[in-house]
Design goal:
2 copies of one chain form a homodimer. By secondary structure, chain A is of the alpha/beta class. The first copy, chain A, is built from 14 helices and 12 strands. The structure holds a DNA duplex (30 and 30 nucleotides).
Amino acid sequence: MDIHAVARLARVSIATVSRTINRVPTVNPRLAKQVWEAIRELNYFPNTQARALVSGRSRLLGLIVSEITNPFFPELIQGFEEVAVESGYEVLIGSTNYEAERMQRCIRRMMERNADGVAVMTFGIEQPLLDQLADRKIPLVFVDVAPDRPEISVLKVDYSHGIRQGVQHLAALGHREIAFVTGPLRLHSAHSRLEAFEEALEECGIPLDKRFVLEGDHTMEGGMAAAEQMLAQKKLPTAVMCSNDMLAIGVLHTLSRAGLRVPADISIIGFDDIRMAEMMIPPLTSIQMSRAELARAAVGALRAHVEKTSPQREYPIDTRLVVRQSTDFPKGTMEHLRKAKAEA
Amino acid sequence: MDIHAVARLARVSIATVSRTINRVPTVNPRLAKQVWEAIRELNYFPNTQARALVSGRSRLLGLIVSEITNPFFPELIQGFEEVAVESGYEVLIGSTNYEAERMQRCIRRMMERNADGVAVMTFGIEQPLLDQLADRKIPLVFVDVAPDRPEISVLKVDYSHGIRQGVQHLAALGHREIAFVTGPLRLHSAHSRLEAFEEALEECGIPLDKRFVLEGDHTMEGGMAAAEQMLAQKKLPTAVMCSNDMLAIGVLHTLSRAGLRVPADISIIGFDDIRMAEMMIPPLTSIQMSRAELARAAVGALRAHVEKTSPQREYPIDTRLVVRQSTDFPKGTMEHLRKAKAEA
DNA sequence: CCGGTTGCGGTAAACATTTACCGGGAACCG
DNA sequence: CGGTTCCCGGTAAATGTTTACCGCAACCGG
């Protein structure tokens, strides 16, 4: 079953069939209709490998993530897949598990399969490896930072906006002792979040207490460890912001286990707003970084490069606060007492 | 950069290069070494599309899941990808979102891309659509049930074993009033789980109370609805088993919100043992169905078909209880009182 | 009515690889 | 030393599509 069969049935040449399929506008509509009918009748579809071989384009987009089990990523993948398929592309997934060697192999796979473009959403670039892709002039998309090359775009996430909203939200509730659990600081994104927090704090006129800044690792275990550290200190903050939701969940766990009630005794804000955040008890207030938006921008950028339709260097991504039930007035304030009385 | 370049550098013919790459044993080892060196020096790798075109094999495996955002699936995908890549295959992901139309398009994509085999892990087959794949004699893998064809294998999940362990665990703790929140009963897997529960109950000599069987939909919202229903009834069970973890999380939510403590007032057991189960407060006792095992079996089955190495019709998958902290003695029993006293 | 221009259809080359088949060379045996 | 056999390497065909180029036909205008 190939293009010849269609041509025969439609009583046209294979060139006409090909042109019809590829929507070349000069094809006689009457013949085009015949061709489409033949295609339908034979249930024909073009051989992708042959098309890719001759056209040099695979219609495959690579998506490299750090860890598919971190719930942030599946949501990203889903969005990416959806948008890509919509635009007629297929998605090749690679997960690095934070290992350079696996990243290496992912890249190799992308090159072997001839991906038209690759989105690297590991939130931490491995410069030397990626040069292989860049050298082949394969369009690339990164998050936050990227080498400066014409075939590379960056999704610039505006961490400040959401984090400022979060800090203002806490400040408005009356919090003055706010802790921050960072991600691994070698990650650019984790670093930016901490910086944004410090700036927002200053804007709100709240002094930064260095003891309230703890380094985590973007996992639940990291959050638990950070919370343990907090509990070990003399003075407890009245609110905790976390560099991502997994940390926040870990913190929530350890604090609950220690007998503290959230948000009555201590408020918690996460980051990313993964779906799990909504499912915690209490549902987590978090700062949303839309996976759908990231995915859409990433595919859009790659398409712009591949299809040569004015690709941009930077694509802005917004963040915003989503208030749920893990934040409340600090314990012992007038508002807190009034509310407690009202509930009693 | 093609096979000719390698041949030129290695001073052999392109046939020798091809044979070397494909590990044909008759190649002179000295020449083979020259070829490998040339390949390394040029950083050459074969063009996948050309290989696929001529050999008729794409080294692409399809994986169709129902919903990538349901945390069960990413873990499955990760395992699948890992095993597939290990065996030299790439993975094409499709998610149906439970929509027949999207399933249709997934299948079409798999056919267009010439997938060597497809694993359909939606836990509910859409018979008519899949005939398209079966008609093309593409190897397929299903879960639980599948049409009886030589190129199709089934992963037979032994729901009974894990569920029996769960019921026995509850019975041993002293529970007699055990509720079950089912999945959507049109899903074969949900049906099997309910059946296994009923059998296990009978084995333990516990009578089945029809009012304690509630239909959910494998989402958190479904679990919350089921818990509401439970709370509305006069008599509350002392333990709840759920057809999957998302339901259990929903139940946990609603019960907590209603002021019930888990496990002190009521015990909960989930199913699947997704990673999130461990992260709940309290960590959820659950019945594990190993994603890694499912993935390994699925890829193994597909490879066996593709590579014609004795494929089997059925591959057994085991389930087992993982006890965490959402199960305890029922409230008011001697053990419960003794424990409560000891804790006080 | 004739010539030119436009527009559409067909043919063939190119894409990079695999693999069957053929031919040549070397080695061993008579 | 010559012949036969075996083994390995090279050549060429085939895979299914795209696309450039050529040629033909039709229509319109002069």
